[in-house]
């Protein structure tokens, strides 16, 4: 029996979070040796080459003019901004803290789905959204001078990533996911190259650093495909809360490789954010009744 589209979307999202967390850890490991623009450029070159070859082999390439479609262009711009802000933030704060702030994303996406798509969300889930935002405030804990630069970068990353996911939902389903990934990866690469001189210029690359970037590129490639599949397969308000799993992956990687242990306030804030996300997941499941969604074929083109 085929899985429901929502179940498939949830599986895609969890896989995407595992690979993105691994990519974040690998990028963080080299941020002291090169700037965010150089990381974006190097990682992007490898990702672009790999995904282009895969797309070509699978016959998924289409006219580059699809970039002129408003939702495709919006997604690409949001992806560029998300990569730049988040990679920079990773070099300024613990991996688990950055990931914890990012956990507010499903709540922001859910709110965006209500605001722009008119998806039904009751007062309980709206309260959960506001509770999640309180959790974010606990994590960032602005002092008398306001938010730190790292916190502001993470919050900005959340907003533009939400815009990316919402735009993905409205892209013509006839456009193959691989083609979207090719365009996105190449755009991020070009922007990274342009950003590198602004952030201090190109630095020498060691064999170890290159290997980390290469593996990160592969994880990003897998993450790209899975997150596009997730947002185009399941309902946004059902699939988005599964992003919370990245906190588990990030905390484990931060502890194992960077000896980072989240403080009690970060744990409390993250718990509030995750609880809010899980509650929206629960309310969505309840709204659909016992069978969360009808069985259907996936809508993701190959």
Q: What fraction of residues sit in β-strands? A: under 5%
Number of helices: 12
What global shape is seen? globular
Straight-line distance between termini: 21 Å
What is the average per-residue confidence, as pLDDT, rounded to a whole number?
Answer: 83
The quaternary organization reads as single chain
Give me the Rg, rounded: 19 Å
Tell me roughly what share of residues is in helical segments. over 70%
Q: Count the E strands.
A: 0
Largest sheet: none
Order of helices and strands: HHHHHHHHHHHH
Low-confidence stretches: 290-302
Structural class: mainly alpha
Q: How would you describe this protein?
A:
The structure is a single chain. This protein has twelve helices and no strands. Helix 3 packs antiparallel against helix 7, helix 5 packs across helix 7 and helix 6 runs antiparallel to helix 12. The radius of gyration is 19 Å and the shape is globular. The C terminus is likely disordered.
């Amino acid at each position: 029996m085929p899985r429901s589209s929502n179940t498939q979307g949830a599986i895609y999202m969890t896989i995407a979070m595992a690979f993105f967390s691994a990519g974040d850890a690998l990028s963080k490991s080299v941020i002291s040796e090169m700037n965010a623009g150089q990381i974006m450029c190097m990682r992007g070159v490898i990702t672009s080459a790999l995904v282009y070859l895969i797309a070509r082999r699978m016959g998924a390439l289409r006219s580059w003019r699809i970039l002129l479609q408003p939702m495709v262009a919006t997604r690409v711009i949001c992806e560029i901004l998300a990569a730049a802000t988040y990679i920079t933030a990773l070099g300024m704060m613990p991996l688990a803290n950055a990931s914890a702030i990012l956990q507010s994303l499903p709540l922001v996406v859910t709110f965006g789905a209500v605001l722009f798509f008119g998806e039904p969300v009751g007062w309980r889930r709206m309260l959960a959204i506001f509770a999640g935002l309180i959790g974010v405030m606990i994590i960032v804990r602005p002092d008398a001078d306001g938010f730190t630069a790292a916190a502001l970068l993470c919050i900005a990353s959340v907003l533009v990533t939400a815009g990316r996911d919402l735009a993905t939902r409205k892209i013509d389903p006839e456009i193959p996911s691989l083609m979207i990934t090719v365009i996105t990866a190449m755009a991020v690469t070009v922007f990274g190259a342009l950003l590198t001189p602004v952030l201090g210029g190109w630095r020498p690359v060691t064999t170890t650093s290159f290997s980390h970037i290469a593996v990160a590129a592969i994880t990003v490639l897998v993450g790209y495909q899975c997150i596009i599949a997730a947002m185009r397969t399941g309902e946004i308000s059902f699939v988005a809360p599964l992003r919370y799993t990245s906190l588990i992956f990030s905390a484990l990687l931060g502890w194992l490789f960077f000896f980072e242990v989240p403080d009690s306030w970060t744990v409390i804030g993250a718990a509030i954010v995750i609880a809010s996300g899980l509650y929206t997941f629960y309310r969505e499941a309840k709204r659909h009744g016992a069978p969360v969604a009808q069985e259907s074929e996936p809508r993701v083109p190959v």
